[in-house]
Specification:
283 residues; 28% helix; six-stranded mixed β-sheet; 2 domains; alpha+beta; four-stranded antiparallel β-sheet; Rossmann fold
Length: 283
Amino acid sequence: MKRTRSCTLPILAGALVLGAWAVSPPAARADNIDLELYKQAPKVMEYLQKQGYQNVGVLKFRVQKGAKPETFNAGPLNVNMASRLENLLILVNDTKQPIGIIHDASRVAADEKVQKDYTSDAGRKGLFDYSYPLAWGKELVKPDAFLTGVVSISKDNRQAKVTIEAFDSKGADVKKVYDFGVRTDRTILADAGQNFLLTTRDFDKADQDEIASNSATYFVEEEKAAPVAKAKDRHVDLQVFYNGKPVDRLPAASGEERIPTPKVGDTIQFKIKNIGNVKVGVL
């Protein structure tokens, strides 16, 4: 049976990638990065204390997939890594002599139109010219340092390495604070904008690690076959409309299909049609 579903919602801002569709996760969710980051947060806080920093912000992370270049726009993982680390630093903060943890530093930087690429000296230095709100109270503070980092996903999608970095107002150099590795799972792959498929057999197994492993294996095999699945190999057909008008898909060097960024106030509509012979779920 062929089924078509559609949904309409207003778009505020941001780019869309046709691939793994995901939204910011609820607070209750946890993946392998969450669990390991919870263990490592005290070590990051200890580093900040030893440096004598008074106010610290956490910026958007980069994501690297295999041998591809690092990017700030892989998927939700770029932003939610900063939110996770910010929340954990608040949790492990010293209540007697707390370090000021800045709230949503990347958003403030974007509002001030600071150069987004803080991988450059100029971009990093510009971040210290502005005042930022703390995670509590109404006080605005000047930052002493920022944390950021990169999540590197192995070529076979089975492992992820998280590197936490820091730079301060005294110099432009970026220093490694700490790094750790984890096994990837479905949430990590989806948040990184990585495509994967789960079969009915996967759901019959109780071992969640095995499910994640099967997901990664399928993606590798699919990628070797073709960067972008041909129409006849797809399980669903996706159409996108801005303000009721169809949007053309644009090829990208990464092999993903992209669509132009909608304008503020635009209404976007998705029409998804099952074009295969099996039931599928769409995230």
